[in-house]
Each structure stands twice: as C-alpha cells, then as structure tokens.
C-alpha cells in the first residue's frame, strides 16, 4: 500500500473535494504463514519496536499481532507525561533518548503527535523530597540532562493557580524540567502503525496470541485466534499481560499487574500550561488542549486485570490536589478509566533476552512508559535485530534481579507518572 | 471496592481497611539456597490472569494476617482462610472449581 503524505497541501486538496480522498492509515492484512519477526502487542512499545526494526535494521518482514485494537491498551489510557529526569544513569539514558526522539517524531512519522514540551514540575512538599529532588538535579547535571531545582517563588510564577502555603502540603520547591511535556497518545500509536504499514509490515488486529510454539529451546511461532503463525524471532511487548505471555513461553517474570487510574474534569479555560506532579500526595495534573484537567494518582496495590481501579484512589488523589489547587474544588469529573500496568520490584523496565531462544521481552514500564516509547522501541529493535542488548538496554536485562543489580527508581518514580 | 471477610475477627472489611501482602504460599528460601531458588522466592511471581491466592492483613482492624482466594479478572472472592496453612481449605477449592471447571490447585504449584 503506497501511503500518501500528510501535509498542509493534502488538507487543502481534500478541502476542495469533500475530504473524499483520505485513505486508511494502515492496511488490515490476513496473517502470512511466517515472518522474520513477530511483535506481540500493538501498543506504543510494540509498534515502535517494529518501526525501528525496519528503519534502523532493515528488517521489514514483520508482523505486529494485537488482541484488541492498536493503541487500546495503556498507550491509549495514559496521561501522556513525558520527562527524563530520572536518578539512575541507565534510566536517564533511555528516557532521554526517548524524549529527544519525541522532539522530531511528528516529522519522522509524518503524523502530528502534538508533542508539547511545556515543562514538567515535580513538587517537593516535604524536606525529604527537597533533598531527593536536589540529588536528582545533581545526577541530571552529570547525565547531561537539563533540569534544575527551583524555589517556591519560582513555582508560584510558573503555576499561579497553585497554593504554595500549605498548611498541610506546603510547596518547598520543585524539580523543573523545561523540556518535558506531553504528546497525544493515540497519535503516537497511529503514527508508528501507519509508518510500519507503509514499510510493508503487517499489523494484525483482533488477533489474540494464545500459545508460543517452540522446538529445541528456540521459538518457532505463535498460536493465535486467527491460526498459527511462524516466526524467526519473537518480541513480547504486552505490558500488563506479560505474565500470561511468559507463561505461554515457559518462564516466569518479576512482574505484577495492577490497575492504575486516571480521570479528567469538565473542560475549562486555560489555567495551567505546564505539567505538575506531586509525589507526596500521589497526584499529578495537566490541562489538555480541550481544556480538561487531566489527573492521575496511585495504583491499586493488589493484582488486578479489571481496567477500572478502586474508587478510593480517585478520592485520595483529588482530595490532596484540591489543597494545592483550590480552583479545582468545584470542577465536575467527566470520566475515569483504568489500565493494567506491569510493575517490577525496582520500578524499572525489562528489555531482555529470555530463557527461550530468539524470544525477547520488553515490559515492566509500569506506570510510566508512555514517555519512553520511542527510546524503548529503538533499544528493543536493536536487541531483537542483533540478538544481544545494545548500550541503551544492556542494564535492563532479566538477570539483574538474580544478580542484585537493581536500577532503583522508586525515588524518581514514587508515584504513578 | 474490594471487600474481604477477615477469618479471625469476622469483620467484612473494605479494601481501605486492609493491606495487601502479595502472592501466598511461597516457599521461603534463605542462606544456603541456590541463586535460582532465592530469585524465585524474592522476585518471580505467578501474577495469574484468573484464580489467585494472596496474603492480606487486617491492618485497621484486628491486625492479623490471613489468606484470600480471588479471581484477578472478575474480582470474585472465593473465600478467606487462616494464614497458618500451606494449602487452601477444600471448600474454597471446590467453590473455585464450580466456576472454573478443571481448576487444579496442585498443578498450579
Ligand atoms: C492511567 C494511566 C496513566 C499513565 N500515565 C502515564 C504518563 O503520564 N506518562 C507515562 O510515561 N506513562 C504513563 N502510563 C504508563 C504507560 O501508559 C505505559 O507504560 C505504556 O503505555 C505501555 O505501553 P505498551 O506498548 O508497553 O503497552 P500497551 O499500550 O498496554 O500495549 C500492549 C498491547 O498488548 C496487547 N496484548 C496483550 N495480550 C495480548 C495477547 N495475548 N495477544 C495479542 N496482543 C496482546 C494489548 O491488547 C495491548 O494493546 C500510564 C498508564 C496508565 C494506565
Ligand atoms: Zn480481623
């Protein structure tokens, strides 16, 4: 399928003919008998993996197999915060790679992903947090990632609607990453899908993987609701469902799946042009282009596959945010939803070879993997293409748990983000 | 909101009254175990899509730890039971088998 470029000219052309010329953004083929690489899961990470396999490594005989619709998992359910101000070097490297790829992603994919580097403020509301964020700011200097620790006066200048005086949650300062921001989640999935389809890859939706075929310790294919499909290599990229796929492939993971929720308010006039995260009170907020206040909070703490979440988390999050943002107290909630996130013990992802030969896994992004999509796809494609991890993914192997080499981000990522 | 009945004090406790303690019936490994066994005990989890056995604490009640059997897809609770056992009571296994034909506790261990 030849893909026509999106451009201002295309919009003008279509405007003159009742928009009758727009084509489907990606093809919907039946599966072939065999592919060089099958990616399971058409979320952002799976689609980006396929895209960079084609773009960076010339591997284009690729299928992305998705049980529902593409982008219908966490990629289409998250609050789209993008930042790279992590503490550990390995994390900073992969998240910053992703953030920098986001800057040109609309041009790369020829799809407007609405990347908005509006700035991310991470509030310090206790003395411990002040010290924690100062430490992160110092680490970021060494990693070459521009962030700074700013005082409460500056915070108030950046976000005038904020109450910094407390008394319960005074704002003592914040970690400020001016080049962080948001992007449109659906467009990220759609843009990668369209670019993959244009390279001749097959995106197979409504096709659930039900089994992994192997012979002599090597993967040979998958079983699906649309029949068996053979593959040379398999990349499992299914977030909350990683445990199920690992079970099919015959290994266990250090991952637990829990529900994480978000909610949006009714739309209001522009009142806050940055992202604010408040980890102590487990809440964060930004304003969408439509004017809704987008709010996220804590995850359920028990294993759960219902994409709902427990209501008391909404109550706790909103209660705490109301103290810091008094203007939101009278807003109505418009909708609430949940996604199933894949949590690891050190709150860092897994990009790894697995005990099954030629089978690779990318998971464990938990509450914060939207920001990582381009970097993760980049690193995963390299791992799958070469069979060995490259510099971005080397630290994120499964063996780190056995060897005690944790990439501890529970400080930087103490709250869902 | 999830509700579990504490098998010790009998209270029907809301989730906010309880603290989850993760997967139940793990075999504890310590000094002298192999690296594999220790990794399995500390980190690797079943994380099942379906029937799950877990530990909970009645934190804002009697304070005791107990076990619960629950379906992670539907949040259906099959029952709660003592923390002192290494196998769920037969009546709970029967209740699970009634809605999950072919359920086999031993095979899942
Ligand atoms: C409420 C919420 C808020 C969040 N906020 C942020 C944020 O602000 N910033 C941030 O960076 N991150 C955030 N995240 C995390 C982020 O959404 C995820 O880390 C990221 O989207 C994961 O992408 P993925 O491609 O790995 O998974 P997904 O998008 O979930 O894709 C996995 C896909 O695999 C498919 N699949 C599963 N099983 C099978 C099977 N058997 N066969 C075939 N296909 C299968 C699923 O249907 C799904 O489409 C948030 C998450 C949630 C839930
Ligand atoms: Zn009790």
UniProtKB/TrEMBL annotation, chain A:
User: What EC number(s) does the entry state?
Assistant: 1.5.3.24
Domain Rhodanese: start-end pairs: 37-81
A GO biological process of this protein is: tetrahydrofolate metabolic process
Question: Where is the protein situated, by its record's location annotation?
Answer: Cytoplasm
State what protein this is by name.
Sarcosine oxidase subunit beta
Q: Which Gene3D superfamilies does the record match to this protein?
A: D-Amino Acid Oxidase, subunit A, domain 2, FAD/NAD(P)-binding domain
A cellular-component GO term for this protein: cytoplasm
Major enzyme class: oxidoreductase
Asked if the keyword Oxidoreductase belongs to this entry, the reply reads yes
Q: Which InterPro entries match?
A: FAD-dep_OxRdtase, FAD/NAD-bd_sf, Rhodanese-like_dom, SoxB
Reaction(s) catalysed by this chain, per the record, are: sarcosine + (6S)-5,6,7,8-tetrahydrofolate + O2 = (6R)-5,10-methylene-5,6,7,8-tetrahydrofolate + glycine + H2O2; sarcosine + O2 + H2O = formaldehyde + glycine + H2O2
Query: What Pfam families does its record include?
Result: DAO (PF01266)
> A single GO molecular function, which one?
sarcosine oxidase activity
Cite the entry's keywords alphabetically.
Cytoplasm, FAD, Flavoprotein, FMN, Nucleotide-binding, Oxidoreductase
Q: What cofactor does this chain's UniProt record say it requires?
A: FAD; FMN
Q: What is its main location?
A: cytoplasm
UniProtKB/TrEMBL annotation, chain B:
Pfam families tied to this protein: SoxD (PF04267)
Matching InterPro entries: SoxD, SoxD_sf
- GO molecular function annotation: sarcosine oxidase activity
Q: Which domain of life is it from?
A: Bacteria
One of its GO biological process terms is: tetrahydrofolate metabolic process
Q: Where are the transmembrane segments?
A: none
Q: What is this protein called?
A: Sarcosine oxidase subunit delta
């Amino acid at each position: 399928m030849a893909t026509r470029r999106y451009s201002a000219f295309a919009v003008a052309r279509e405007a003159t003919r009742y928009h009758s010329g727009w084509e489907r953004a990606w093809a919907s083929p039946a599966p072939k008998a065999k592919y060089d690489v099958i990616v399971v899961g058409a979320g952002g990470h799976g689609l980006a993996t396929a895209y960079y396999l084609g773009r960076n490594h010339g591997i284009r005989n690729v299928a992305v197999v998705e049980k529902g619709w593409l982008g219908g998992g966490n990629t289409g359910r998250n609050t789209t915060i993008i930042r790279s101000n992590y503490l550990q070097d390995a994390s900073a490297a992969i998240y910053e790679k992703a953030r920098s790829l986001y800057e040109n992603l609309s041009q790369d994919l020829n799809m407007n992903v609405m990347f908005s580097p509006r700035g991310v403020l991470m509030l310090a509301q206790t003395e411990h947090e002040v010290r924690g964020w100062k430490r992160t700011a110092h680490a970021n200097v060494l990693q070459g990632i521009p962030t700074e620790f700013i005082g409460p006066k500056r915070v108030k200048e950046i976000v005038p609607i904020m109450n910094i005086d407390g008394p319960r949650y005074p704002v003592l300062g914040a970690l400020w990453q001016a080049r962080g921001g948001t992007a449109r989640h659906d467009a990220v999935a759609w843009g990668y899908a369209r670019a993959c389809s244009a390279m001749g890859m097959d995106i197979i939706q409504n096709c659930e993987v039900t089994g992994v075929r192997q012979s002599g310790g090597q993967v040979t294919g998958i079983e699906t609701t649309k029949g068996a499909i053979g593959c040379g290599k398999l990349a499992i990229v299914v977030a909350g469902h990683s445990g199920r796929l690992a079970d099919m492939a015959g290994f266990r993971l250090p991952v637990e799946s829990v529900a994480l929720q978000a909610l949006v308010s009714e739309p209001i006039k522009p009142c806050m042009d940055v992202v604010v995260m408040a980890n102590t009170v487990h809440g964060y907020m930004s304003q969408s282009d439509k004017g809704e206040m987008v709010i996220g909070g804590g995850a359920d703490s028990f294993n759960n596959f219902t994409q709902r979440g427990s209501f008391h988390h909404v109550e706790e999050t909103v209660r705490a945010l109301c103290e810091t943002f008094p203007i939101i107290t009278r807003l109505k909630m418009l909708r609430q939803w949940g996604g199933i996130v894949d949590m690891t013990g050190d709150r860092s992802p897994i990009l790894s070879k697995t005990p099954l030969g030629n089978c690779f896994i990318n998971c464990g992004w938990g509450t914060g993997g939207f920001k990582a999509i381009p970097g993760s796809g980049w690193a995963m494609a390299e791992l799958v293409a070469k069979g060995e991890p490259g510099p971005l993914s080397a630290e994120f192997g499964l063996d780190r748990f056995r060897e005690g080499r944790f990439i501890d981000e529970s400080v930087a990522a103490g709250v869902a983000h | 909101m999830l509700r579990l009945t504490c098998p010790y004090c009998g209270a029907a406790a809301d989730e906010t009254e309880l603290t989850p303690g993760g997967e139940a019936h793990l075999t504890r490994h310590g000094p002298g175990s192999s690296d594999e066994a220790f990794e399995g005990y500390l980190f690797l989890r079943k994380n099942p899509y379906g029937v799950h056995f877990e530990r909970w604490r009645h934190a804002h009640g009697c304070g005791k730890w107990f076990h619960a059997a629950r379906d992670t897809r539907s949040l259906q609770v099959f029952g709660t039971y003592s923390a002192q056992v290494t196998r769920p009571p037969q009546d709970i296994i029967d209740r699970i088998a009634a809605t999950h034909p072919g359920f086999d506790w031993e095979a899942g261990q």
